[in-house]
Amino acid sequence: MVDDLDAIIIGAGFAGLNAAVKLQEAGFGRFVVLEKGDRIGGTWRDNTYPGACCDVPSRLYSFSFALNPDWSRAFSPHNEIRDYMERVADQFGVKDRFRFHAEVEKAVWDETAARWTVTLKSGETLSAPVLVSGLGQLNKPGFAGIPGREVFKGDAWHSARWRHDVDLTGKTVGCIGAGASAIQYIPEIAKTAGKVIVFQRTPNYIVPRLDRAFSDFEKWLYRTIPALDRLNRWFLWQMMDLRFAAFKTGTKSADSFKALAIKYLDGVVTDPVLKAKLTPDYPIGCKRILVSDDYYQALMRPNVELVTEGVEAVTAGGVRTTDGAEHACDVLVFGTGFVTTDFISPVEIVGAGGQTLNAAWADGAEAYLGVTVTGFPNLFMLYGPNTNLGHNSIIVMIEAQVRYLVEAMGELKRRGAKSMAIKPEAFIKFNVELQRDLEDTAWAGSCSSWYKTASGKITNNWSDDTATYMKRMRHPVLEDYVFG
Fold this sequence. Notes:
This protein is α/β, with parallel strands linked by helices. It contains 13 helices and 21 strands. 29% of the residues lie in helices and 17% in strands. The strands form 6 sheets. Strands 3-2-1-7-19 form a 5-stranded parallel beta sheet, with helices on one face. It has a 5-stranded parallel beta sheet with strand order 8-17-9-10-13, covered by helices on one side. The radius of gyration is 23 Å and the shape is globular. The model has no long low-confidence stretch (mean pLDDT 95).
């Protein structure tokens, strides 16, 4: 057993990378980052579909302590983001702390030793006083319960597991789902496929991305004057944070944002039948607002068909919809999202008294400030419950959580304590107030979304702007914790 560690971090995405850099800077140099994949990247390692890119501006979708003046575009493609993460690991000297092909099966809290014992799929065990989950919310592909996938005779895959070895030229491709990933790859595959059939369950509000390439002069300027890059990042953060008002029900900001989306649809799509199919009938923000410069345009191509009848089942030859129609397909792509409300369910987490985290979350995941959970001492989550956003960069939230983690570990060391556990009363008070505040947001609307459970509990999104979250995360409120 490896047991000379300060902390064990699970996941090599943005959260795990941030934690690695900052733990090392703070003097907690004995840690390991366990990653089931073969390289750093997280969702940007997994999602390599054609057209994959970020829908947050590049300058803000990067660490505040590691600016990148050489982004090629206003909205970065997936490979640039992944390469940026690799460079950060090299720049800050933490690359050797990552262990790849190291999938975690179970983590158990030992109350006597006040340590977490982590077991890998290989059977190897590691032990540390602190466990950090950097697993995120968008890593486990979901298939929306669509039956018949196993009987399809052609090639089929989830968008997060793209088959680059399959040539789509001239083929009929059925795209099930029209969400954030689908609106990126559909325009790309429509350029070569013989026919693309888009199966849309619910239309989305879409606003223009306004993407563009950065000029060589701009890159030179940001490289030469880093303060300008930092100022730009700050300005983008401030402007995007103001957009949170659009997610509050009944506000003028919500009306204005909706008007922007409808104006964009009206300006691109002229066919009234197609436009009707693409017009949402729910409050803006209830589902994820999407950004694109070419999705509507792709739907107007002669080789693209939009089907809005529900998918009943996958058949041997394609897709059968609820109106009884059979849609023949050579290839199927499932853009059906991810299992988002289970959070770290692929890993069995066993806390004090033998309680599992999945049992504790039977009625929906919840945490104190999205980071700590009653009954699970020394467990810190990054991008945990209720820390997702609809208006700003998740990197801002992750950096605040990592600062909180580092300060908490520093407090443990200062006190000579072995454990730090959130008090039940503080945990309950926070979550009651959080759900109360979320009732006034668009996410509480009647639409279904990956932001909430089947019962309607919002488990994914934060209830305010990022400035408010950062303020609350500035320092742990020590009175809310029990130290042992």
